Amino acid sequence: MKHALRKLEWIAKLTPENCPGGMPEDDRAWRDLVNRIIKDVRLDLRESDQSDSSGKSDLIPKHGGCRNLRCFQSGEIIYDATQIFCDRFIPKRSRTHDQMVQAARSGRQNIAEGSMASGTSKKTELRLTNVAKASLEELMLDHEDFLRQKRLRRWDKDTPEALAVRKRYRTYPEAWFKHREDSTDLLDPYDLEKVDQTVAANTLICLINQATYLLKCQLNTQAHKFTEKGGFTERLYKTRRARRDAR
Known about the structure:
The chain folds into 2 domains: 2-51; 66-242, no CATH class. 68% of the residues lie in helices and 0% in strands. The two termini are 36 Å apart. By secondary structure, it is mostly helical. The chain is built from 10 helices and no strands.
């Protein structure tokens, strides 16, 4: 930790004369400077956490790392895309606007919370993963209702448009997420800021279908691991028994 703090001394000593790249002159330059500070702090704290992680007990296994999960990344795309969609096509004072955005947020946040909880409770991980899946399924119904009530065309899963979305989804580049922690922009790889409401709603339905499929697979994997290896209570019992036997 001390080493990490030493590396961040440049922030504490920052003055108009020694600003990297000179004193910011506009909003974008200020934002770039703030993003650089945030990036350095996060990087050094992450390195510090990794250096302090040696020697941990098997009682609490490695957990977290949700940002590397494909389902979390899908949830992040859907969350930002839903915000864009609702801001463009749903009245902001409508309850539907808030409910759709909150359902998208719930999908992403519960994946993250379940990933962090998995260290001490596999049952909680299973429950939160299922909540994430249910939230996204609720959101998909809202998009389907939007198309139906506005008499707009719903894409069949084998239409060229739907196939194009799934193909792009399967092959999305890592660059979509590489600098997410340092960006203030919404993630919009499908250009929902520009397309019409029919394309936007159908694209989101395709993405949600892919995300819920991934979550279903993850639930099956989590359930299998829990059945085969047990959870925290079983590990705690085995650890305590091993220590008693060693005395």
